[in-house]
Amino acid sequence: MCGILAVLGCHDTSLSKRARILELSCRLRHRGPDWSGLFQYRDSFLAHERLAIIDPASGDQPLYNESKSIVVAVNGEIYNHEILKKNMKRPHQYHTQSDCEVIAHLYEEMGEECVQLLDGMFSFVLLDTRDNSYIAARDPIGITPLYIGWGLDGSVWFSSEMKALVDDCETFHIFPPGHIYSSKTGELRRYYNPAWWSGSIPSAPYDPMALRHKFEEAVVKRLMTDVPFGVLLSGGLDSSLVAAVASRHLAGTKAAKQWGPQLHTFCVGLEGSPDLKAGREVANYLGTLHHEFTYTVQEGLDALAEVIYHIESYDVTTIRASTPMFLMARKIKALGVKMVLSGEGSDEIFGGYLYFHKAPNKEEFHLETCRKIKALHMYDCLRANKATSAWGLEARVPFLDKAFIDLAMSIDPAEKMIRKSEGRLEKYILRKAFDDEENPYLPKHILYRQKEQFSDGVGYSWIDGLKDHAACHVTDQMMKKAQYIFPFNTPPTKEAYFYRMLFEKRFPQQCARETVPGGPTVACSTAAAIAWDEAWSKNLDPSGRAALGCHDAAYDENETKPAAAPVVENGTKMHRLANSIPRVPVTV
Known about the structure:
- This protein has 588 residues and is of the alpha+beta class.
- The protein has two domains: 3-193, Aminohydrolase, N-terminal nucleophile (Ntn) domain (Glutamine Phosphoribosylpyrophosphate, subunit 1, domain 1, 4-Layer Sandwich); 203-546, HUPs (Rossmann fold, 3-Layer(aba) Sandwich).
- 33% of the residues lie in helices and 16% in strands.
- The protein contains 21 helices and 19 strands.
- The strands form four sheets. It has a six-stranded antiparallel sheet, with helices on one face. It has a six-stranded antiparallel sheet with strand order 4-5-6-7-11-12. It has a five-stranded parallel sheet with strand order 15-14-13-16-17, with helices on both faces.
- Helix 4 (208-221) packs antiparallel against helix 13 and helix 8 (297-311) packs across helix 9.
- The radius of gyration is 23 Å and the shape is globular.
């Protein structure tokens, strides 16, 4: 991942303004610690903080076409750049081997429509000095972050993170995924319009081999790298499939020739957590070089303020899951790894969250998956990107490959419905697609392991510890006045109130608050899905255990929250979590 900051139509073009933009760009340097670039043309500035993944030696940004009349600053990866180069109408001369340089040349030939041909994760700002026009665009799902803001002088700002906008923009908003902004019209336009976007119910038959092959293609194209890489492996279905496919296809790739044929995998959790055990088992089965990282509840609590600053959210689920990922990313980067593959997106596409057990029919099931995919840029994509980019680590997500989504979302949703009595658990069609008796991808019990949300899988005591910690900082009196203190997205729990306080210290603007989604949820559902079960409205909590009657370790029907004193398993002995928690050393 990289960091981009663009200011266009700026009234002040003095040296002091250039210095100010360099200063603001430094706020994004954690995303791209390898090099900084700044281009100025008249009243426009394009700044870039680079994380070098492809062509580390010469791929510094901004990037240009041959004549340098078209300039682009990009955050992301263009996986089909070689194909795009071959299909150009005329030969082009390239300054670098960067996959992103192709955007400048493609724009020269096609104009704004070039964005339709890009296969990858990206956000970019492109300046055409021939007529002083510009465009900005974001990938279809919003894997990479982008914000748009406006200055008092009429300038338009774009940034990978809003921390570079909070002081100099009068207002700013999330740049919506799948959109392009053109200075010629001054408007945003949706360019990504797949068949599933409208919510129409698909009817294509389920073809397990087609699904398998499309996912394998998605993983293989993301092995494009000139730096050391690995896979985040929690031992759940999604990350295990990513690791299995990557391990199987790594040999013979350019990456294997550079860095060796053995895949590196990484896992994080509290001591004795479900993820550590399952991740270790999958790694042993696949023969990967596995790295385990443990953290304590106290270490997670100590990192909360920094986590919220980096992920720029006060959403409870996002913070719960971002914290262990943030801690793990730091350790991974310390090993010299700069890119990882991760399993985000599968649950949204296949209805993998446990609350999907209660979907009343295939129509509701499908519409909920559509809502979840459309919101990914505010939740899991935001977490995966910003929690890793905080330490200069890039996360790639093969389940959110455009072609794979189109195929998976064209399948009749009746095939995705969960029917436990028939042995069809969540994400059954994905599991079945990789259930190969002759050449198994994974052990059966891993392939059919029940869904664990990342914030649960790292250890149940993590969430319980967060709730207890918040209760120590937020009083009942504060909760009574919450609607007056925070009238927008009023926090419903002490945990949410505590996160909101930390967020407001860094991002006090109303427009910053509005970048974070709100509303009730149970086990990560949208508000609309709560109506599927009457009991859920009394047990609003994003943990998978809140899906009463679905999770093997669900909360008791009569409790609205877990017991106040969290319990941690330590071997065969159960003990109460004390205020002073012993530090567990990180093991690699």
